[in-house]
Predict the 3D structure of the following.
Amino acid sequence: MTRVLFISLFSCLVVINQASLISRCDLAKVLHQEDLDGFEGYSLSDWVCLAFVESNLNISKVTENADGSFDYGIFQINSHYWCNDYLSHSENTCHVECRELLNPNLLAAIHCAKKIVSRAGGMHNWAEWMMHCAGRPLSYWITGCHLG
């Protein structure tokens, strides 16, 4: 009986984890619909690469940082500066609750990421994008995606 319960619980956790992932083409389609292609000079490929290197396309990813702040969602937006998680002081520059950045419709995450990119530094604000995406050919991130 315990074994059956464990297997059922494990299966539920796997389903929940899979439900938080988005494919690169589905993400590209949403980003295209929200007019991010060319926003502040960044291509859809830049945005998809950013999401991949930050969260592995995991919409519900939350990461605790050494300073006690947390990074939320597909773009790993930090609670100290950009959103309010009610756990520590936040500048809440995006005027959003951090949990909204985990919404599968991605709108809060996209609007906040646009605000971040519009400020000085653009995508350079994300260290992972700098290390893995900046200055590289990225068109393969949207190859085969039907955006229309």
User: Anything to note?
Assistant: The CA atoms of residues 71 and 78 lie 4 Å apart. Confidence is low (pLDDT under 50) at residues 1-19. Strands lie at 62-64, 70-72, 77-78. The first strand starts at residue 62 and ends at 64.
